[in-house]
């Protein structure tokens, strides 16, 4: 009981310290809330004449998410086995996923120039770090039974991976990759803010121009797309369980 009270006091002290250390917006908070209200109004009254262009940008974001996820799902397989076998692999993947997608997008923009390819690379690199970690955990929890049975009948060591390990981990790998695609769809809509392609770029321009009906149209499209991807990926992952 005393220990619980101690940690509650520590948590309360940290919360107070955090609040006091933040620079609160003060009077500008009202301005921010009024802009948020205008965004909601834009969603309720979108510019339907901008729907075709919005769909084009949204499809580009979805393409970025799909290609970035596909690349990372393949690259993460050897890294996942490496992480399961050696601490250095875990440390490497931890270092890779330290950098968020936006930072990686800026780095790739410097080398590759603006456009969706930089966004794809940012998503692929960050997702490789995340999926590699999760793949490694799946490999670590593989049942030793099939491997031991193959060894008992004298099966060559080269066949152990294909016959004993991969059949157990592939459903988990696919499920994790699909879940990562959900996350990347959200991330891809933001990468355009730094010029890495997708719907984020026109959304930023419309926000800067206070074109709320266009902003509403794009936000509405993003919400619908995210809900649709979440629903379809959840159904797909259920089939793999």
Task: Walk me through what this model shows.
The protein is mostly helical and 241 residues long. The protein has a single domain, classed as MetI-like fold (Orthogonal Bundle). The chain has helices spanning 2-21, 28-44, 51-85, 87-96, 101-112, 116-140, 145-152, 158-191, 200-208, 212-240. The mean pLDDT is 85.
Which SSEs are present, and which pair or pack?
Elements (H helix, E strand, L loop, with lengths): L1 H20 L6 H17 L6 H35 L1 H10 L4 H12 L3 H25 L4 H8 L5 H34 L8 H9 L3 H29 L1
Helix pairs in contact: 2-10, 3-4, 3-6, 3-8, 3-10, 4-6, 5-6, 6-8, 7-8, 8-10
Question: Could you write a compact summary of the structure shown?
Answer:
Helices cover 83% and strands 0% of the residues. The protein has helices at residues 2-21, 28-44, 51-85, 87-96, 101-112, 116-140, 145-152, 158-191, 200-208, 212-240.
Q: Would you identify the regions where 5 or more consecutive residues have pLDDT less than 50? A: none
Structural class: mainly alpha
- Proportion of residues in β-strands: under 5%
**End-to-end span in angstroms?**
41 Å
Number of helices: 10
Please give a handful of descriptors for the protein shown.
10 helices, single chain, 241 residues, mainly alpha, MetI-like fold
